[in-house]
Task: structure prediction
Amino acid sequence: MALLEIRNVVKRFGDFTAVNDVSLSVEAGEFFTLLGPSGCGKTTLLRMLAGFEQPDSGAILLDGLDMSRVPPEKRPVHTVFQSYALFPHMTVRENIAFPLKMAGWDRKKIDSQVDELLEDVRLTQFGQRYPHEMSGGQRQRVAIARALVDRPRLLLLDEPLSALDAKLREQMQIELINLQKEVGITFVYVTHDQGEALALSHRIAVMSHGQVEQLDIPERIYSHPKNRFVADFIGQCNVLEGTVKAVEGATMVVSIKGCGDVKCSTVPGVVSGQAGWLALRPEKIKLDKELPDLPDEAYFKGRVHDCLYMGDVTIYIVEVGEGVLVEAMLPNNIPGVAKFFDDHDLVEIAWRFDAGSFLTE
Ligand code: ATP
Result:
């Protein structure tokens, strides 16, 4: 049995449907992320898990029990917010101890539990400090420790790192991964940051307009997006319009509009004549003055349209047909060489045909 099961949940605000028939389940011990652009309904879904909002229809089950009549404070669920929500007049220890004090635990048990949590979030030396004497990252670690102190079944995290600068955010991401592994509590994490979702999660549900577009492990979400929305939303992606010309077992031939034919992996149910898009990540593309025409690769000739030097990589925009632009990303791994090609250079590009995904929607 899954720890958390969301069954056909719908939430409306007046005429507007914020969450539209979402069903998914989360396993015990998972780091599960709801990812999507602003307004896609991820926070509303999280708030229903916490009990702050009620679904209009559908059910939320935790450990097999329907939560619909269980108020937020009675659910074995805690939430960590972007804004930390710490008590300013209490020390770090007092903040973390607060839920246990409210639950009537005895002093000794509280002390040992707080010590354990301070160690988990690496703040043992900071117990006597007040929130205003700590950095944003440290404050967020206190908020997480407080939310974990009575060992909830589920920890909900609503964009907890978005107030931190990029460097600190990366550091906190590593800490969150390690903390979740250590405490083994199931995390449901909300973010609009795709990099963060890919780095942290065991599985990701990508949401748009109140619905789940794709639910999978990060590697598959990234390398095999299910539709154009996911391909566009997660990282950079070339999306080339085309039509299936022939299906030959595990491979099919796709005619790319304005360019020519390429092979790609067959998609179940897709037949000859089907219109769609070939999705291809820039870093999957090889680029050189000349490339061998290999049997397991797709291949186009083109001309460099633009180059963007990014330090670790250079992005080349290559025109492979009348107005058809493909972005290729090459690592700058030769010391002293920033760019291998220049605008207007004639080049060839190639990619393993199974690196592309044919999308029908
Ligand atoms: P963000 O990242 O900006 O918080 P989100 O994906 O978390 O976005 P939600 O906060 O779940 O989105 O909101 C989804 C939609 O529902 C939005 O269009 C929002 O305006 C609307 N909405 C949320 N709460 C309410 C409310 N209490 N009353 C009316 N509309 C609401």
Summary: The chain has a mean pLDDT of 92. The two ends are 33 Å apart (CA to CA). Helices lie at 42-50, 92-102, 107-120, 136-148, 166-183, 194-200, 218-223, 228-233. Residues 13, 18, 36, 38-44, 192 surround adenosine-5'-triphosphate (CB under 6 Å).
